[in-house]
Amino acid sequence: MGNWLTKTLLFLPCFLFAEIDTRIENSNFTINQESTTYNYNRLRLQSNYKHKNFFGTFIGDGINYYGKEFINASTFPFIKTQKSNTPFDTQTNFKNYGDGEAYAKLYRLYGGWEDDKNRVVLGLQNITMGVGRIWTPTNIFNPKNSYALEPDETFAVAALSYTRHLDEMSQITVVSSQKENHKLKSALRYKTFFEVADVALNLIHSDETKMLGYEIEGNLADTGIEIRSEGAYIETQLQNQKEEQFFQAIVGADYGFENGITLVGEALYSSDTFGYQSIVQNMNADVVSNLHQNNFYMAANVSYAFNLIFDASLLYVESFGTDNSRLIAPQITYTLNDYNTFTLGALVNSGKKESEFGSFGDTYYLRYLLSF
Questions:
Q1: Could you tell me if residue 190 is inside a domain?
Q2: Is 133 contained in some domain?
Q3: Is residue 246 part of a domain?
Q4: Of 55, 184, 298, 324, which is least packed with CB atoms within 10 Å of its CB?
C-alpha cells in the first residue's frame, strides 16, 4: 500500500501541471443517395495531452447510421467490412436496433516525445506523405479520398515513427507499421530544401509492395503561384493476380487571388489501369488508393470566402478514357458561431452508365457540425 501511494504521489505532479485539451464534436449528415435518404452521425471525443516534451492524443468515435431502407440495401454490408488494417480491432461490431445500426471506433491513439531535433510517435496515428491536394500517389499509409464526403477521414496506422531534423532545411523520417496479418510495412523519407523548392525522396517496403517516390514543392519565381509534383514507381502483388509494376505522378499548382478566391489545379497520370472488380477485390491492399480505372485525370478546385460566415467551394474531376466521365462536388458553408456550422453540398456524377463516374448515382447532403 505504501509503495503504491508513493508512486502515485510521484506521478501526480506530472498530471497536475500537464496541458490537457478535451473537445467534443458531433458531425450529422442527412444524405440523399440514389433516391434513398438516411442519416449518418459521428460523435467524436478528442483529448490532447502535453507535458514538457511528452504528448499524447486520444480520438474516439461513436458512429450511427439511421434509415431502414439504407441499412437493408445491398451496399451496406460493404460499408460494414471497411476497417483499419491494424494487428488488433479498432472498432466494435455493428449493433442493429431496427431502423439503424451503430458502432464505436478508436480513431487515433498515440503518444510520443519531441524536442528541437527529434520527434518519436507510437500508436494509432496518421502518416503524412505527398504534396498532392487531390491525389497523393506516394502515400500508401493514409491516402485521402477526394471522392468521399469527408476526404481527410482516414483509417489509423499502427506504427512507430521517428523524425530527425538534420538542420533547419532537412529532415529524415523512419516509419515501421504493422498490418492486420502482423506483417510490417516500413518507410524511409528524406526531405530537404534544394535551390528553390522542397524536395523529398520516399522509400516504402512491405511483403507485397515496394515503392520509390519523389516530392517537389516550391513557388514559381515571384508570381505567387505554388507548383508541386509527386510521383511513385510501384511494384505490388495484388490478390489473384501477377505482380503489377506501374508509375504514377501528379502535377499541380495553387494560386490565391487578392479578392479571396483560391484556385487549385492538378493532373494525375497512371501508366496502368485497373477494372472496378479488381479494385473491389483489393480493398485491403497497400495500394488500393493507387488503383485507377483510367490513365489520365484532371481536377480543379475553386474556393471563395464571401464573408466571415459564408464560404463556398467547387471541385471538378474529369476522368479521361474510352468514355469520359466526371465528378462535380459543390458545397457552401454557413458558420453560425464558434460552435455551430452548416454545410450544404453534393457529389454529382456524370457520364455514360459504363464509365467510371457515370456508373454511380448522385449524392446530396446537409451537414451540421456542433463542436465545443
A1: no
A2: no
A3: no
A4: 184
Task: Report yes or no on 3 lying in a domain.
Answer: no
Cα–Cα distance for residue pair 309/67, rounded to 1 Å: 31
Q: What is the pLDDT of residues 222-270, one digit of tens each?
A: 899 999 999 999 999 988 777 899 999 999 999 999 889 999 999 999 9
Distance (Å, rounded) from C-alpha 48 to C-alpha 55?
7
Confidence check: pLDDT of 159 > 90:
yes
Closest CA to 62 of 47, 88, 40, 79: 40
- What mean pLDDT is predicted for residues 171-180? 97
The kind and range of the H/E element at 350 are strand 340-351
Range of the domain at 106: 18-110
On whether the CB atoms of residues 236 and 253 are closer than 8 A, the answer is: no
For residue 281, the surrounding DSSP H or E stretch is helix 276-281
- Strand stretches in 52-180, DSSP E: 54-66, 95-96, 100-114, 118-125, 157-165, 170-178
* Alpha-carbon gap, residue 315 to 297, rounded angstroms: 13
| Residue 215 grid cell | 516530392
CA distance 11 to 338: 36
Please state the length of the chain.
372
Measured distance CA(58)–CA(67) in Å, rounded: 30
- Residue 329, SS3? strand
Whose cell is 514559381? That residue is 220
Kindly report the pTM of this predicted structure.
0.91
Among residues 167, 20, 179, which one has the least CA distance to residue 85? 179
Instruction: Look at the alpha carbons of 333, 335, 339, 342 in this order and tell me if their dihedral is positive or negative.
Output: negative
The total number of structural domains that make up the chain: 1
* Residue whose grid cell is 499548382: 253
Contact 177, 157 (CB under 8 A): yes
